[in-house]
Amino acid sequence: MGIILSILIGALAGFIAGKIMKGGGFGFWINLLVGIVGGFLGGMVLGWLGISWGGIWGTLLTAVLGAVILLWIISLFKKKK
Questions:
Q1: Exposed, middle or buried by CB within 10 Å (0-12, 13-18, 19+), for 15?
Q2: Model confidence over 10-65: pLDDT tens digits?
Q3: Cβ atoms 62, 43 nearer than 8 A
Q4: Which residues contact 30 (CB under 8 A, 6 or more apart)?
């Protein structure tokens, strides 16, 4: 998979995860970072479970899953108002 496609998938995954967890995106760069880290995290979690999703859609779903987990973990440490 090309670097451009990876960046686009990461940004889209971060945006989707932001909508799921908080109700809004965080801007392109933060969405990209959350999506990329989420892709690694989702790949690890699915790997532990013995699940492998292929193709662009599988990559996107894996990154979204990981980004949602990442945002959930961050929310545990965030101060409540």
A1: buried
A2: 888 888 888 888 755 667 787 778 888 888 888 888 889 998 888 889 989 998 99
A3: yes
A4: 14
Q: Look at the pTM and tell me if it is higher than 0.85.
A: no
The pLDDT value recorded for residue 48 is 92
Q: Is there a contact between 11 and 32 (Cβ–Cβ < 8 Å)?
A: yes
Rounded Cα–Cα distance for residues 24 and 44 (Å):
26
Which residue matches tokens 């479970």?
49
Residue 71, token pair as written in the block: 């945002």
Residue at 22: amino acid letter: K
- How many residues would you count in the chain? 81
